[in-house]
Please model this.
Amino acid sequence: MGIADQMLDVARQAKQASRVMANLSSAVKNDMLLRMADALEQSAENLTGENEQDVQAAEAKGLSSAMVDRLILTTERIKGMADGLREVAALPDPVGEVTGMWRRPNGIQVGRMRIPLGVIGIVFESRPNVTADAAGLCLKSGNAVVLRGGSEAIHSNTAIGQILKTTMSELGLPDGALQVVTTTDRSAVLELLKLEEEIDLIIPRGGEGLIRFVSENSRIPVIKHYKGVCHTFVDASADYAKAESMCINAKVQRPGVCNSMETLLIHQDIAETFVPYIASAMRAQGVELRGCETTREFAPEVLPASEEDWYAEYLDLTLAVRVVESLDEAIKHIQTYGSLHTEVIITRDYENSQRFLREINSSVVMVNTS
Model:
């Protein structure tokens, strides 16, 4: 069977199973997710063994430490996947929820009710935990899901998918509702993107190149964002110790994920003291800094930043730093260079925090957190 026929078969199985999933009760779906969580934890030794093959291959290819970190499955991360499924199980069931009801002038009553989409295709890179996370969300909402991960995580993704499918089979549920594409042939993605009769929505998760490829080639509606150029603005009123803790966490904890901080903005009124303070703290964590002229005035060891650095999604231990004159300039910088992903303000000024929340139009906007 060729790749095109394989993907058509996968999608058709998912389509057929989606009709069953759409009508499952909340109790059945929640029980399924809880059993999946237990099965993942019970299979931790097997999963880490499969994952080691992916990690070794990635290291042999010379991938960066941050990219390798995205691949690694530890016992703690497996527990995190399991806990994520338990959290999804605890969420209210969206299927059947009536979100609006009104009566027209002619007396007809009109309502809006949430229903499953059908089959969701998710194309992603690197992080094998996406296999469980995406499956849990799609299945809880009554959908079937087709998952196509990157070749760098093929052993991990296949193993996770098989554990979840086995749980479904044991419960008498159609395991076709959860399909993990096991071929690493790149043409498989192209074939999936043609299946508009079987797949109802495509969600790409990964680097900008992958997302643009999916968007440009898909016949199916796509939900996307291109990259995560995420900012933290340290306002003049910020508490230094708290700002340091939040900034270190935002950059260092998982530099290879899309909501890690890529640009740090610092108010000029605190630049003379905070720039060398945070620069020293970042260097101690192995972070390479690239700064504007004012940043380098107060921390001469910082490398000069170019215009490209303000647009950069490093996904590594590299950080752009810019000193801005005001909150207005910080907002303007984010609006100019940001990718509408995640932005943070660290401040003790309530009015500034509220302006930041109102005027920044990113998907996630936060105050005083990482």
User: Anything to note?
Assistant: The chain is about 50% helix and 15% strand. Residues 331 and 359 are 8 Å apart (CA to CA).
